[in-house]
């Protein structure tokens, strides 16, 4: 067993089912494994994803799920060291990170209100199995109602449940993304140097 897989096994033993779901979503696996409802299925999926990961990726995932104890205990890295290392090496899509952050900030009443608002948008059987905003996000992505470039629908429904703080967070993300796109469009394109073997 590789050192990474040993670390993953230690990490996995400490993660909750919700933390496993967030990791699967961050890795892009929740949308293909949305039927993962049992803790054991989530753990198998998470283990599979993490064993194929590099140490830097594990650091970022643990930072995103706020498991600083595992950073320190298993990966032997402090939070500040990991944050410094990841300043220029982020691998997780910012959109997915945003969705996890927004999901974490929602309480049960917010989720119930969203489910009520989406009763005509999403099938009833999907809404009955919702455990977090991430489940809703995955289904809205499948319907192409939201994406990393298209978040107006989610912003509107968050405003409807009076979560202007979360709607504003999404608006800021959209503005930042737009400015980044404009900035990269303004820069001249350069060709990469050919690799010599």
UniProtKB/TrEMBL annotation:
<dbReference type="GO" id="GO:0005737">
    <property type="term" value="C:cytoplasm"/>
</dbReference>
<protein>
    <submittedName>
        <fullName>CASP8 and FADD-like apoptosis regulator isoform X3</fullName>
    </submittedName>
</protein>
<keyword id="KW-0053">Apoptosis</keyword>
<dbReference type="InterPro" id="IPR001875">
    <property type="entry name" value="DED_dom"/>
</dbReference>
<dbReference type="Pfam" id="PF01335">
    <property type="entry name" value="DED"/>
</dbReference>
<dbReference type="GO" id="GO:0042981">
    <property type="term" value="P:regulation of apoptotic process"/>
</dbReference>
<keyword id="KW-0677">Repeat</keyword>
<comment type="similarity">
    <text>Belongs to the peptidase C14A family.</text>
</comment>
<dbReference type="GO" id="GO:0006915">
    <property type="term" value="P:apoptotic process"/>
</dbReference>
<dbReference type="InterPro" id="IPR011029">
    <property type="entry name" value="DEATH-like_dom_sf"/>
</dbReference>
